[in-house]
Amino acid sequence: MEEPHIERMAASPVKKGSLMMRPIHWFRMLGEELHWSLVMGVIVVYGISQGFGVGLVRVSTQYYMKDDQKLQPSEAQLFFGLLQLPWIVKPLWGLLTDTVPVLGYRRRPYFIFAGCLTAMSMLVVSLQPNLSLGYAMLSLMSGSTGMAISDVTIDACVTQNSVTHPSLAGDMQSLCGLSASIGSLVGFSLSGFLVHLVGAKGVFGFLSFPAGLVVMVGILLREGNLQRSVYRGVHEKFLDAGKTMWRTLKCREVWRPCLFMFLSLCVSLHVHEGMFYWYTDAAGGPSFSQEIVGSIFSFGAIGSLSGVLIYQNFLKNHPLRDIVFWSQLLLSLSGLLDLILVLRINLRIGFPDYFFVVIDEAVSRMIGRVKWMPLLVLSSKLCPPGIEGTFFALLMSIDHIGLLISTWLGGLLLHMLNVTRTQFDNLWVALLIRSMVRLLPIALLFLIPRADPNLSVLPAETLKMKKGDDDQKNNEMASLIEGN
């Protein structure tokens, strides 16, 4: 990118003006520098489909597994882990959207397909009576696949622009985070009320509407029509993309932070289903209603949104390693809040359950978002030109494998400690173990670079495009960036 453009961005009005006008200037700047259709796509996919939609689907799925399918906490965690499988194969979806255009477009058809798949899957779970666990999981996994495809497609758009506009990488990730957090806040706020009103299956039917908006993104997204010749040599493109990914992964600047993110997720030990069952079923627990559970998650969304704002306004220019160190330390300490709650210490010191839980949820989500925002920015800068969607999907799939491992390890821990639908005596032990192992990633911080977060991370030779490629390939890789 040319230096005058960077100077113009540094002098952008988003840095000036009243506090009320800064968000307006910020959105206007992103719309001018990128394109309004990309900004709209981020808001729809991250904010409405994933933020609002996932806010609804998380609570409804938890109640569906507990009340309709009658699963134990450890079993529920196992099946929740299975819903991560479509996200683990994200590189496949990324490879398709990067190398296999449909009707002359690389992004738009995949949005349309993803939205249709998610809508149909949610309607099946909602409308089919007495659905067996196997068929229910198949439908939920199909819906998860649709969300994963739309996610990797918008990731490709965002990552492509992060490589060509490195000074805007933090702003684009902040837009993604803000959209997801605000959408989650609204989704979680309504989730408990909707589950109480229409039941978990009714909420699944409602989720077909956000999927329809993803279809709209595919219709309205600005993307140039590619030449017919790009359909030739798809096999070679797959091979070239695979070679490029392997060559990039072997770079020290790439595999080290990837390893940190993977191991950091693996040892996070999720025991969320044990806590959810304790919230709602334990004889000596809070016995929260559906509305209360939804409101608790909404406070978590507020915490997540606060984390995005803190990063955007105060931390995005700080060294990555420093941010991750302090956030990882605080994340481990925040896990002890759950321990205080389960041991009922909060009642002894005069803190009501609901008040204590919402503080716990908000603080934990805020710290987690602050930790992952710089890592997401770093991930977007590790992607080589031409296969941005594929490589970013590969990085995210590695993270999802770590998340799957942590979910299943947490479920195994609950099973070993005999935490069931009615037995929670050893839940505090699981929470203590979780908090202790969360300290382990601090010993691996040397894997994260100390480089300026506003500069490119990849070696210069990786960023260079082959001069032997014709203009057709350049058009193929810049379908969303040209001609603002």
TrEMBL record:
<dbReference type="GO" id="GO:0016020">
    <property type="term" value="C:membrane"/>
</dbReference>
<feature type="transmembrane region" description="Helical">
    <location>
        <begin position="292"/>
        <end position="311"/>
    </location>
</feature>
<feature type="transmembrane region" description="Helical">
    <location>
        <begin position="36"/>
        <end position="57"/>
    </location>
</feature>
<feature type="transmembrane region" description="Helical">
    <location>
        <begin position="254"/>
        <end position="272"/>
    </location>
</feature>
<feature type="transmembrane region" description="Helical">
    <location>
        <begin position="426"/>
        <end position="448"/>
    </location>
</feature>
<keyword id="KW-0812">Transmembrane</keyword>
<feature type="transmembrane region" description="Helical">
    <location>
        <begin position="78"/>
        <end position="96"/>
    </location>
</feature>
<keyword id="KW-0472">Membrane</keyword>
<protein>
    <recommendedName>
        <fullName>Folate-biopterin transporter 3</fullName>
    </recommendedName>
</protein>
<dbReference type="InterPro" id="IPR004324">
    <property type="entry name" value="FBT"/>
</dbReference>
<comment type="similarity">
    <text>Belongs to the major facilitator superfamily. Folate-biopterin transporter (TC 2.A.71) family.</text>
</comment>
<dbReference type="InterPro" id="IPR039309">
    <property type="entry name" value="BT1"/>
</dbReference>
<keyword id="KW-0813">Transport</keyword>
<feature type="transmembrane region" description="Helical">
    <location>
        <begin position="203"/>
        <end position="221"/>
    </location>
</feature>
<feature type="transmembrane region" description="Helical">
    <location>
        <begin position="175"/>
        <end position="197"/>
    </location>
</feature>
<keyword id="KW-1133">Transmembrane helix</keyword>
<feature type="transmembrane region" description="Helical">
    <location>
        <begin position="323"/>
        <end position="345"/>
    </location>
</feature>
<feature type="transmembrane region" description="Helical">
    <location>
        <begin position="108"/>
        <end position="127"/>
    </location>
</feature>
<dbReference type="InterPro" id="IPR036259">
    <property type="entry name" value="MFS_trans_sf"/>
</dbReference>
<dbReference type="Pfam" id="PF03092">
    <property type="entry name" value="BT1"/>
</dbReference>
<feature type="transmembrane region" description="Helical">
    <location>
        <begin position="391"/>
        <end position="414"/>
    </location>
</feature>
